[in-house]
Amino acid sequence: MDREARNRLLELPDPELRSLCRxxxxxxxxxxxxxxxxxxxxxxxxxxETSVSVVCDETRSQTRNRALALRRLRHSLALAHxxxxxxxxxxxxxxxxxxxxxxxxxxxxxxxxxxxxxxxSDAAAYLGTTTGKLVRDLAKDNALWQHxxxxxxxxxxxxxxxx
Length: 163
What we know:
By secondary structure, this protein is mostly helical. It has 2 domains: 3-70, Double Stranded RNA Binding Domain (2-Layer Sandwich); 82-163, no CATH class. Helices cover 52% and strands 10% of the residues.
């Protein structure tokens, strides 16, 4: 998947993204008592083209779980697909985690890191930020943090430490 296709996919409105996915509803597991065991409120969303799948069962509302699952799907798609970085970088600041622009920011930061061999200092210079700020931004998202550290370990680099 190229950069434009990935970014278009990450920017799709929820109804259009849902049309590209298989959505399954089921009973959630774990605590929750009688209500949890009688409603199919848990949601699994699978993007058909890439087979990326996410599950959400935090709330008792199937509608709310579906919306949260679509946000997680965008997050997972951003983690999964790399492309060569653009010159100059699209983003100069980090959008909030609930912003529609966040998955694209995350994907582009990962593209830059991958392009620079996961070296934080080189990626930070390319992105126009400091090494410390980039590390703090990565650390704010647990899945992103784990993904970067797993990639660094695969490349025989030491894992990042939170400050």
